[in-house]
Amino acid sequence: MAGVTSADVARESGVSRTTVSYVLNGTPNTSISDATRRRVLETAARLGYAPSAAARTLRSGRSDLVLCVLPDWPVGPVVETMLDHLADELAGRGLSVLVHHVRGERPLTELWRTVTPRTVVGLTPFAPDEVQAMRRAGIQVVDTDAGDPDVEDPQPRIGRIQAERLVAGGRTRIGYATTSDRRVAEFADARLAGVRAACAELGLADPLVIAVDVDAASGTAAVDAWRAAGVGGVAAYNDEVAFAVLAGARIAGLAVPEDLAVIGVDDVPLAALASPPLTTVTQSIDREAEHLAARVLAALDGVEPPPHPHDAPKLVPRESA
């Protein structure tokens, strides 16, 4: 039933709205019988009544909602892992997570004023005036994109690890499978810069860069171009792009890694199940997710956030490279 209110629950239960409020909010020291309490709860469940976040905030003086603002990123395994961990940690505090993707021109102000969150977590930078407005409204702001000067950007290092692994396997001509999704161009370009730097330092030619969509046809076309140029190893932007390269190699009749070595990034669960199992680079996403949750909890508790774990990307060697 749409638009069910506490008045509807009270009317159906045959009690006052005050009694409904006491029951649904678990108000202590009230003389409400067990039978009445059960009747109210059963009626609320049957009608589908759910108090709004704004109403809960007005009653308790505190919101139980954490608004997590994401850039316009595709939601893949890495983002899912981070959000799952954040939701699990905050659930232990009785808090719920609402995820908002920044898309279009709608001002963020409209959203946080509507949902009245207790905390806003930004994986994308907030404008200074936006931060001030939220804080004036009593909303805690956790800007994870503010940057830590003591933490080196891991993305170029990821590219270096990929290139070094391919060269260690005897590959002297390297290809780079970038993504055509420009929403993640910042990450793809930084990893490519690492591959390029490693190739230059090792006296190799600049990597042959081809954008690969996550489908077999795109992977096949890229593999054909790389083989025609004498490429023997491919560093992929991430594991999903690497899967497309593996599919293209299979269609082209190439053996991996004998004819073409392939290495990805992220170590998603399917990487170990690929054929052959995919060599990849892990970014310690679980640890990053733990750190994000710890920063939010520190903000809630009014204490200093924990230091960044400083985990460097690590190679996960398997059969594909």
UniProtKB/TrEMBL annotation:
Residues 4-60 form the HTH lacI-type domain. Residues 302-321 are annotated as: Disordered. The keyword Transcription regulation applies. Pfam families: LacI, Peripla_BP_3. One of its GO terms (molecular function) is DNA-binding transcription factor activity. Keywords: DNA-binding, Transcription, Transcription regulation. Residues 307-321 have a biased composition (Basic and acidic residues). It comes from the Bacteria. This is LacI family transcriptional regulator.
